[in-house]
Design goal:
Elements: E1 11-12, H1 21-28, H2 33-47, H3 53-59, H4 63-68, E2 112-113, E3 132-133, E4 147-152, E5 161-164, H5 165-169, E6 174-181, H6 187-190, H7 198-202, E7 205-214, H8 215-221, E8 231-236, E9 243-247, H9 248-252, E10 257-262, E11 265-266, E12 276-278, E13 291-297, E14 312-313, E15 319-320, E16 329-334, E17 340-341, E18 345-354, E19 360-366, E20 374-375, E21 377-378, E22 388-396, E23 401-409, H10 418-425, E24 438-441, E25 447-450
Parallel strand pairs: 4-13
Antiparallel strand pairs: 1-17, 2-3, 4-5, 6-7, 7-10, 8-9, 8-13, 10-11, 10-12, 14-15, 16-18, 18-22, 19-20, 19-23, 21-22, 23-24, 24-25
This protein binds the ligand Nc1nc2c(c(=O)[nH]1)N[C@H]1C(S)=C(S)[C@@H](COP(=O)(O)O)O[C@H]1N2 and molybdenum atom.
Molybdenum atom binds at residues 133, 182-184, 284-285.
């Protein structure tokens, strides 16, 4: 194998991931001058997802001092182990946060905060960075005052019940890793608005280990006539009273969960505490937060959230309804829009792939805009309907490049190009954009969000 270590490239994160002047001042206070520059550079790089600390230290010309000197943390007593009682990320990571897109102009409550995909590793989204889409703002609901009702049309449910959170937590739980993606993820790209970073192009997807009870168990517990039910309606307790129709076939598969756990602790309030529906593979809007009601029926319910919105306008002017499956998709998360390749050499190109139909089978990566493709290395074990991490080394020769990733799932579905997608869907869509993303690397090393005419 080639030894790439001597030609290792350096990556600068997206501008917004640099620490602000204020934060830099914080870092500087109480530290010796020569240490500070190295730290600021290194921490800024880490906030952007680039592991270049060694280079950052060298760049200041103080690399040897940093390893030879005994710094304050090597000569003093550290902080008490029980402070703070709930741990937080390092203060040097303060810029890796959720953000509202510059491309969206809505009030803050009824908006969406995007996850900073450019700075994450692996497949689990830290709960504090899970994207947050709330139509009416989020709430921190007292779990002792929260109830979930299961009922049905006619005599579909023999014993309609009202459950407390405690009732549900007493049942046999399962824990499963799944992605949640808003149907409107990458919506700006339909109009080729070219928002600057992967946080805004793809940051409405996140992935957690959810713990809860299969909804099927609750229906059985209520004596539901499982053969007679064809659709269920799920409704949230928040001001938007989000409600959606979900096909009974998904519930019967056992995959739909009434979840209370997220990444080993209770759900975060922003993500639906104390109960949310998890509908693996379906668009985010079906995954009702603050879940308060399940109603069983025989026809789709035609709720406000599937009539007024979440429909796809097709080229012939007709509106397509109930398209809730999230198709196979992937994106390179680093290097990505707004980041800068600081010199020629080897980079680890990394990204995420997912499919609402099941597991990811393969991810191909191109550096020439889709002319030639290389198999990326997939990090296993690959989970069902979950984010999947891919990596591939790449030598940047200093010339213009067009980076793309193309995912293929276990059912054989292949992520389409924009040309292929627009041919079927036309130009009026908002939701369900799973097209191949292109990042242009310019000669300067700047990475930009572009769409190519041919792909
Ligand atoms: N009760 C309720 N559930 C909701 C919403 C909401 O506003 N209220 N937003 C929906 C939408 S559009 C999405 S994309 C997902 C987002 O889940 P998250 O905020 O946990 O990322 O929740 C869905 N469930
Ligand atoms: Mo959404």
């Amino acid at each position: 194998m080639t030894d790439y270590s001597k030609q290792l490239g350096r990556l600068r994160p997206a501008p917004e991931n640099f620490l602000s002047a204020e934060q830099i001042a914080q870092v500087q206070s109480g530290r010796r001058d020569f240490l500070r520059r190295a730290f600021v550079t290194a921490s800024a790089a880490m906030a952007g997802g680039a592991a270049v600390t060694a280079h950052a230290a060298e760049a200041t010309g103080k690399g040897s001092k940093l390893i030879l000197d005994n710094p304050p943390w090597g000569t003093t007593l550290g902080r008490p182990v029980d402070e703070p009682p709930y741990g937080m990320p390092s203060k040097y990571e303060a810029n890796l946060v959720r953000r509202i897109s510059p491309g969206l102009a809505a009030v803050n409550q009824a908006n969406v905060a995007f996850a900073p995909l450019q700075g994450m590793f692996g497949i689990i989204t830290p709960s504090g960075l899970h994207f947050n889409r709330s139509h009416q703002g989020w709430y921190d609901i007292d779990p002792s005052e929260h109830r979930l009702m299961v009922m049905g049309e006619g005599d579909l449910v023999r014993n309609p019940k009202v459950y407390s959170v405690g009732d549900i937590m007493r049942m046999q739980p399962v824990s499963r890793i799944h992605f949640i993606e808003c149907g409107a993820n990458s919506a700006m790209e339909w109009a080729n608005v070219a928002v600057p970073t992967v946080q805004y192009t793809h940051g409405m997807v996140s992935c957690s280990e959810f713990t809860g009870v299969p909804l099927l168990h609750l229906l059985q517990d209520c004596g539901a006539n499982l053969d007679g039910v064809r659709f269920i309606m799920a409704e949230g307790a928040d001001g938007s009273h989000e409600n959606r129709t979900i096909p009974m076939s998904l519930v019967l598969s056992g995959e739909v969960l009434v979840a209370y756990g997220q990444n080993g602790e209770m759900l975060r309030p922003e993500n639906g505490y104390p109960l949310r529906l998890v509908v693996p593979g379906c668009e985010g809007v079906s995954q009702i937060k603050y879940l308060r009601r399940i109603k069983l029926g025989t026809e789709p319910f035609g709720t406000k959230d599937e009539v007024l919105g979440y429909v796809d306008q097709m080229p012939n002017g007709k509106l397509r309804q109930y398209t809730s499956l999230m198709e196979v998709k992937s994106v390179i998360t680093s290097p990505s829009g707004g980041q800068v390749l600081l010199d020629k050499g080897v980079y680890n190109v990394t990204g995420l792939a997912w499919s609402g139909r099941g597991r990811i089978k393969r991810v191909d990566v191109s550096f020439d805009g889709g002319v030639s493709w290389h198999h990326a290395r997939i990090e296993g074990p690959v989970q069902n309907k979950a984010l999947t991490r891919f990596n591939i080394p790449w030598v940047w020769n200093g010339q213009v490049a067009f980076m793309q990733s193309r995912a293929i799932d276990e059912t054989g579905m292949v992520q389409p190009t924009y040309q292929q997608l627009r041919k079927v869907r036309g130009d009026f869509s908002v939701y369900h954009n799973n097209a191949i993303q292109t990042w242009q690397v310019q000669e300067s090393g700047d990475v930009r969000n572009v769409q190519l005419a041919h792909s």
